[in-house]
Write a structure and sequence with these properties.
The protein is built from four helices and no strands. By secondary structure, the protein is mostly helical.
Length: 145
Amino acid sequence: MSTKELQEKLVSAMTRWQEIEDAAVATTEHIIEKTSHPLIRTVMEIIQTDSKRHYQVQQMIIDTLEKEPISITPEDLIEVWDLIENHIQIERQTVEFATDALESVKGTKMVVIQYLIEYLLTDENKHNELLDNLEGIKKAMYPYG
């Protein structure tokens, strides 16, 4: 498969995926309208927000394939790396805090609270993974800095 064919395939896939994300937003909105239950509403709002963010990322992929590729330089990262490292420490603290909180409710009848803390822990771990991968880009580009 040529690069051009691969790009076209990815754009098509991202466009279709965006249609699915739009459907997810619509269905979560419908569920939110139908319920007043705070847990169900919160879960649907979380999914809705994530679907909107996914759509934005998919659009960034489409734009970089069709318009102008996104590039990043070592200078782009180095310029803010001290701030990012500080944020990495904050995110690690949130994982520790969430892990401790989760351990305190495991084995209790606080299943809703456990469910919500597990969600928070999963999300905080996702943030750490995003930052670790960003650091991997930095190291690949600037291995000694």
